Amino acid sequence: MSHILLCFPFDESGKLVTAMTTLYPLRFEPLFRQYLWGGRRLGTELNKPIDDDGVFAESWEIVDHGDDQSIVANGPLAGTSLHELIEQDATALLGDRVATAIRSESLPSNLRNRFPLLLKMLDASRDLSVQVHPNDAQGSRLDPPDLGKTEAWMVIDAVPGSKIYAGLKAGIDREAFAAAVAAGRTEETLHSFEPSVGDCIFIPAGTIHAIGAGLLVAEIQQASDTTFRIYDWGRVEANGQPRTLHIKQSLDVIDFESGPVSPVTPVPVASDAAAVTLVDCDKFTLQRYTLSDSHRIDTRNTFQVIAVLSGAIRIAGDASADVLRKGDTMLVPACVESILIDPVEAAELMVASA
Questions:
Q1: By CB atoms within 10 Å of each CB, which of 120, 254, 276, 298 scores lowest?
Q2: For the domain 28-253, what is the CATH code?
Q3: Is 83 within any annotated ligand binding site?
């Protein structure tokens, strides 16, 4: 599919000023993953169009990773993949800085010209495996190369007693951890806590972690799908065999210096009373907005990934007539200079950019 990508500018009321382009705030069709730890809340809580039968673990909302491609859901660009949009005009979509970064020759050739982040929703009706992800340097040595995976979670719903496992207990070094794994005592080494709705947990690459049963989570991460599984609670596959573990690979990438991980402390944004910063790292910035009145967010010449955590909103320039509700997501191109958001009801949003 071929399009000329420009941008639709909008005035204070959200009305089109001059039809310069075809880029606009984008909704995508979700991609679903059915894993044994999934449930039904992607449909019942987040209104995702899952099938009537089966368990659904993940909804990939915005992704450009090989064959896994987000497809524009509506408007003039309906049917276009996210990767096609980048190929046509990466600067308009991503902004100058990010567009330059994804073209860098320092990246393996298969990782160039890709959208740098992945947004997903996860429904954990059972504990996820205990796992770890490599960093960029380690990922580049894989075959085929992949990005590292630094990620952050926003807790949307939590059944009482649900746990998050994040980092190792204080004093657990490589030798102690390897001995515990060999003895079947992995769980004893893990730091855990019971999260609350609204908590944000930052998981840099190299951090051992697992999302516990009963949690509904929005996750922003690097656009990588490389996972090393360390422990899987004794579960077996459909054929009765234990699930594959990656002990050696995990020991090579775990950051044994990082220690326990707790929910982040929000930092108020001095220039915007509606916003707090949750994560500001070299891979992405993540903020939370609490809105009850119309609000404008400056895109600062970079794309903005938006997920509704609660409530309902409208965004100026949205090609859909529907409001964005809990669990709905949107990608606002960098060439849209600011985002005018009108809450239909009081809302909380997570907003990420690179």
A1: 298
A2: 2.60.120.10
A3: no
